Structure of Beta-ketoacyl-[acyl-carrier-protein] synthase III:
Amino acid sequence: MNIRICGTGSALPERKITNDDLSQIMDTSDEWISSRTGIKTRHLATEETTTSLATEAAKKALADADMKPEEVELIIAATVTPDHLVPTLSCEVQREIGAVNAVAFDLGAACSGFLFALSTAQAYIASGRFKNALLIGAEVLSKIMDWNDRSTCVLFGDGAGAAVVRADEENICHVVQGSDGAKGLVLACENRPVNNPYHKMESPLGYVSMNGQEVYKFAVRTVPATITKVLEEADLETEEISLFVLHQANLRIIEAVAKRLKQPMEKFPVNLTECGNISAASVPILLDNINRHGMIHRGDKVVLAGFGGGLTWGAAVLVW
Ligand code: ACO
């Protein structure tokens, strides 16, 4: 038993912030940000929450899949910025959409989160436990940014994407995943410190820190290798792939991956220009963009790839 994506949805906060807007509040410029990353604008939450964005994306994905909330059997939400530690984002979305028959849990794999959710759903569905799943990647990263650190805060945005997958005997979907905890601190965010009557730790609130050059090296080395591996496992040639839907961290990373795979940039859709990097939400938002713009057709072979904190990475090849 395999899976097919049969519906997508996405949601972005209303407030759009340009690079020039940022240059009004910190020492940066459109030239610095766009030449190094390709990012021009990002959407930042004001009234929106991770739950409200995830719910909107989930409702759109269910409508696109023509599926009623009560038919959903499994909800997996990938996020590093849930509104609460408990209840989880997936349970909050379950409540909001009325998916009363679903099992719901969250999964943390940073920017690879959506790929890890897809892989988990595929394994559950292959085992016969569930017949469908609602997968969500949602982040309000602006709440874990240090807005005094121009080297990180300009890179990220807020938003949510969702996809409905169903069991499909005919389809192919291969996934490769990896992790390297030893290099985790190149991209990190502290949680609350231990603080109880027997041990007190003074620690500032946790914000994202990153060694950009190490992340860049990791991405351009690992992503092409992972895509090559998943294509080998599926017995497919790179040329047979219609689109490569990559995590939207940085245009230079995407260009380097395209070059290493010897594929034209036209096969690599990009939305980081408008959205910035939205971690676990990047891949499902981009999937929804290409689905709604008619850039993908039934029978097309598509590669999805995520990479980021952990370190973690994953790639999937599937037929649309
Ligand atoms: N505006 C203006 N100047 C800045 C800014 C900014 N927003 N941020 C940093 N600078 C300055 C630095 O202070 C430094 O100045 P100095 O030379 O006077 O000390 C200079 O720019 C160069 O800083 P670097 O950190 O060396 O910049 P670099 O050229 O490496 O570019 C970048 C940074 C874009 C993050 C790059 O390392 C990169 O592409 N990394 C890939 C990682 C990535 O994209 N991560 C995204 C999130 S991770 C993920 O999703 C997997």
User: Anything to note?
Assistant: The longest helix spans residues 212-234.
